[in-house]
Write a structure and sequence with these properties.
Elements: E1 4-12, H1 15-27, E2 33-35, E3 49-50, E4 60-61, H2 62-75, E5 79-81, E6 85-89, E7 95-99, E8 104-112, E9 116-118, H3 124-128, E10 134-135, H4 138-141, E11 149-153, H5 157-166, E12 172-176, H6 186-193, E13 198-201, E14 204-212, E15 215-223, E16 229-233, E17 236-239, E18 243-245, E19 276-278, H7 290-322
Parallel strand pairs: 1-2, 1-8, 2-5, 8-19, 10-17, 11-12, 11-17, 12-13
Antiparallel strand pairs: 3-4, 6-7, 7-8, 9-18, 14-15, 15-16
Helix pairs in contact: 1-2, 1-7, 5-6
Length: 323
């Protein structure tokens, strides 16, 4: 079997953006190849309950939703290969990607859907209670904490915005920050301080998340001033210390912003390289939702299709001119 795989549309990464791009590309008869990466399905694979993805009246499971998207992409004709891309070359046509397996993948166009990962605190108890009280997405999971008391850790815009958002559901929101001032914009801070449902614990870091078989019940927090440890009761914890886009592979090869997100043209998924598109959390540090990622995956496939059609037309015209 050949160790080289070629497609008109090569999709790097999976998740809502990658699977949707694959569905649209396959339906356009472009015979896409998807190199799924190691963490197939993205962040939804660690999201237990999903209630905000359109089309489902009942709560669904994140892994189940990704399995359905994967099955749909396969059903319409996507070739999926489990491999991890270690190098890309956008200076040649067709574009070239090399996998950890040694396989070479080429594409007339490329859709990058490698996503982003939430930064976690790195506590063993944090992993233990993920989906059982611990979350990294208030927009996704805040609804499940109606009438409950929760904590949020962080000090930037995301932490403050999510603290304010959580007051739509929670009876009390406690923001925990390891310093004595926030990095968030002053206007956001003002809105937060004026909200009587929010209080702040300054100069503390989370030492441990406590709970039982039913889920999280509280936190052990440690003073960054004197090291004293105290306990507080909380029904949930939202970690809002940032996200890291999976773009290391593309540094120096595509234009990125200061945080490492791939820059795309306005109202487009087009990157700084003609024929290379980026969709989902790899380019989105604002919304980071499954539905917006899926929408961008659709856009990327449609734009790739138009690019290929334009190239085919150009080739036909060149052949006519040569006759």
């Amino acid at each position: 079997m050949s160790n080289t795989h070629h497609s008109k549309v090569l999709i790097i990464g999976s998740g809502p953006a990658g699977y949707t791009a694959a569905i649209y590309a396959a339906r356009a008869n472009l015979k896409p190849i998807m190199v799924t990466g190691l963490d197939q399905g993205g962040q939804l694979m660690i999201t237990t309950e999903v209630e905000n993805y359109p089309g489902f009246a009942d709560v669904i499971q994140g892994p189940w939703l990704m399995e359905q998207m994967k099955a749909q992409a396969g059903h319409v004709g996507t070739e999926m290969i489990t491999d991890y891309i270690t190098d890309v070359d956008f200076s040649v046509r067709p574009f070239k990607a090399t996998g950890d397996s040694g396989a070479v993948y080429t594409g007339d166009t490329i859709v990058i859907a490698t996503g982003a990962k939430a930064r976690w605190l790195g506590l063993p108890s944090e992993k233990e209670f993920q989906g059982k009280g611990v979350s990294a997405c208030a927009t996704c999971d805040g609804f499940f904490f109606r009438g409950k008391e929760v904590a949020i850790v962080g000090g930037g815009n995301t932490a403050v915005e999510e603290a304010i958002f959580l007051t739509n559901f929670c009876s009390k929101v406690t923001l925990i920050h390891r310093r004595d001032e926030l990095r968030a914009e002053k206007l956001l801070q003002k809105r937060m301080f004026e909200n009587d449902k929010i209080d702040v614990i300054w100069d503390h870091a989370i030492e441990e998340i406590t709970g039982d078989e039913s889920g999280m019940t509280g936190l052990k927090i440690k003073s960054t001033k004197n090291g004293a440890v105290s306990e507080i009761k909380k029904d949930g914890l939202f970690v809002a210390i940032g996200h890291d886009p999976a773009t290391e592979l593309f540094k120096g090869k595509l234009d990125m912003d200061g945080e490492g997100y791939i820059i795309t043209a306005a109202d487009s998924t087009a990157t700084s390289i003609d024929g290379v598109y980026a969709a989902g959390d790899v380019t989105d540090h604002t919304y980071r939702q499954a539905v917006t990622a899926a929408g961008m995956g659709c856009m990327a496939a449609l734009e790739a299709d138009r690019h290929i059609a334009a190239q085919d037309d150009a080739d036909i015209e060149a052949q006519k001119a040569a006759v």
